[in-house]
Design goal:
The protein is 67% helix and 1% strand. It is mostly helical. A hairpin with a 5-residue loop joins strand 1 and strand 2.
Length: 309
């Protein structure tokens, strides 16, 4: 079985084992894993994301205080970082460390869920358009082009304004339905290339149905680039969610989130610098980790990746 056009243009075909010097084969998943594990930057990104995920899941047990609790509005207002309050307190005497920890739960949950929704919708839409082809494909892609012509941030602001009050679930839906356009174009191009491969032609000759061909022979080749794109999108969505919340159009004000912390800290950031600083460090670390992991996945799944010995 010859490598597909998708392999030559994008990422390693998970269905083709790697050849080694002694004539044996190494499963491509193991080759990709070994290549990824050798990338220290990517492994570091994974560690950061795992630590943030554990922190978010165990926020109720890790955070020293209730993130909404007003500890002492007079004595503990705008306290600088100290041993008692490592990240200081805000203008309402709330512990910033506790709010950053609980904010990770909201921001990461919104990012991961919305990216999963966008990747699912984009993969299904692009696969259908690329496999059917013809005027249906043209019509579906022109619709995507029209949506891509609108900047995503402006579209989100317009929808959030018309929607009114947006809760966390609504924000996930809003980010999910506006984030699948690019994925659909990527998947469509890969499906068109894979549809012309010999093994797909053989499957048709053997009487395989369209759904079986699409799900068992074509979509597995799409999984790798979609995974890379989705990982890269996590950092982008975290920034967008924080920006919307900062503008008052995202997570409700009473829910701790990184965007809300930025909004609270920008009122007097020169005097009380610790509120936006530590929130910004958490945000930058998340975006950087997601980008490092995505780059590591891209390199590990590259068709030029030599087989491990």
């Amino acid at each position: 079985m010859r490598p597909s056009r998708f392999d030559a243009a994008a990422l390693h075909d998970a269905s083709v084992p790697a050849q080694v010097a002694d004539g044996g084969t190494i499963p491509p998943a193991r080759v990709a894993w070994r290549a990824f594990a050798r990338d220290r930057s990517a492994v570091g990104g994974v560690i950061i994301l795992l630590l943030l995920a554990v922190m978010a899941i165990l926020a109720d047990h890790i955070a020293p205080y209730n993130p909404r609790a007003l500890l002492d509005p007079i004595r503990l207002k705008n306290v600088a970082p100290s041993l008692d309050f490592p990240f200081g307190t805000d203008q309402f005497s709330r512990d910033v460390l506790s709010r950053v920890i609980h904010g990770a739960r909201v921001s990461l949950a919104v990012a991961f869920l919305s990216v999963i929704a966008a990747a699912t919708v984009g993969t299904a839409y692009g696969a259908i358009a690329g496999y059917i082809g013809g005027w249906i494909d043209s019509a579906m892609m022109r619709f995507v082009d029209a949506l891509l012509a609108i900047p995503r941030v402006l579209l989100l602001i317009a929808v959030a304004t018309l929607w009114g009050k947006v809760d966390v679930v609504g924000l996930v839906v809003l980010l999910g339905v506006t984030g699948w356009f690019g994925v659909s174009r990527l998947v469509r191009s890969l499906v068109i290339g894979a549809s012309e491969d010999e093994f797909v032609t053989a499957a048709r000759a053997l009487g395989a149905g369209h759904i079986r061909i699409l799900t068992l022979h074509i979509l597995p080749q799409v999984a790798s680039p979609v995974l890379v794109a989705a990982t890269l999108a996590i950092g982008n969505v975290v920034v967008i969610e924080s920006g919307l919340t900062f503008l008052g159009m995202g997570v409700p004000q009473d829910t701790p989130s990184w965007g809300g912390l930025f909004r609270d800290g920008m009122d007097a950031y020169t005097a009380h610098w610790w509120v936006p600083l530590f929130t910004g460090v958490a945000l930058v670390a998340t975006v950087l980790a997601a980008n490092l992991v995505a780059d590591g996945l891209r390199q590990a799944l590259s068709p030029r990746q030599l087989p491990a010995r």
